[in-house]
Predict the 3D structure of the following.
Amino acid sequence: MNAKIEAGAKFPNITALNLEGQRIEIGKPTNGADWRMVVVYRGRHCPMCTKYLNKLEEHREKLRETGIDLVAVSADSEAQLRSHLEKLDVDFPLLCGLDIEHMQSLGLYISDPRSAQETDHPFAEPGLFVVNEDGLLQVVDISNNPFVRPDIKTLVSGLKWIRDPKNSYPIRGMRSYGD
């Protein structure tokens, strides 16, 4: 059983490979942004993931304007990611090589392939994490299947509202069961 990662927790120091073979810290914002959205997707074998990533690209600029950098990561190999690029039209970093230990540290659901035609390794089910300027989890969304994911338009609109200083919106879900 995976432990649930808590809202407000420090995002774990996790690295994955980019297509240049460099290890990239997935939760660290780049390109002048101070927040980062980390999208964990199932992999090349998932047509719903391909559709979701392409839809995210349509909102990438709005996220950037809000100070949020975007990255997507899977357990796929570099070769699988390269072949997936044929179906993707995105201009945000795609990373590969997410290992089971890291999936577990994020509290992700992990699945085994149904067949060798699907893929050749265990993979994470979808997860979406928004890391704020303090490296804390501002938003956490974890699913056990590809059919349940945040609506991107609503998510981007909500993040813009959260980032607006006049709203002073805290990290939600911080109350523990014993309180």
